Amino acid sequence: MDRSYLLLVGALSGLVSVLTHAVFGSLLDMLRPKAAQGTSATANVDVPDILMHMLAGTGLGLLFWLSWGLAAVVSVPWWLRGLVFGGLCWTILGLPTVISAARVRHTGIGPAMIVATQWATTCLVAGLACAWSWGRMG
User: Is 15 helix (H, G, I), strand (E, B) or coil?
Assistant: First the structure.
């Protein structure tokens, strides 16, 4: 599998995850009553956040390539391999970082959960995209 292709797929999946999260967050904001809107579900995604998710997706693509597409996980469909990879990446890299940042900045549970779901979405979409590409091309 070509490394540059997985890097591109990872970067694009980071952008897709930000877009997906923004759409679902906007729908959730529309459905909630005005009195309950203390925190926005979209959490004001701006250009630095978008770039961070894109770079993280690129890094996840590189990590997927370095792990040989989780070659030790055999006889499973591509989507299960992608979910395992994305879940592992989020559990090992994303979740501790979000918890640490929330503790340092003394943010509430609501904003911390929004950021945690954003990073979980990025990890899962990147894992699924890379596993699909690996399975299709490999």
Answer: helix
The answer to whether residues 53 and 17 touch, using CB atoms and an 8 Å cutoff, is: yes
Q: Measured between alpha carbons, how far is 43 from 13 in angstroms, rounded to an integer?
A: 20
Q: What is the mean pLDDT of each run of 10 residues along the chain (138 residues)?
A: 84 90 82 61 72 91 88 85 92 88 85 87 92 82
Angle at CA of residue 115, ends 112 and 108, nearest 5°: 15
- How far is residue 26's CA from residue 18's CA, in Å, rounded to a whole number? 12
| Dihedral, CA of residue 99, residue 105, residue 107 and residue 112, to nearest 10 | -30
Q: Please answer whether residues 119 and 52 qualify as being in contact, where contact means their C-beta atoms are separated by less than 8 angstroms.
A: no
The structure's pTM equals: 0.81
Tokens of 28: 């959730």
The dihedrals phi and psi of 37, each to the nearest 5 degrees, come to: -90, 55
CB-neighbour burial class of residue 100 (10 A; exposed 0-12, middle 13-18, buried 19+): exposed
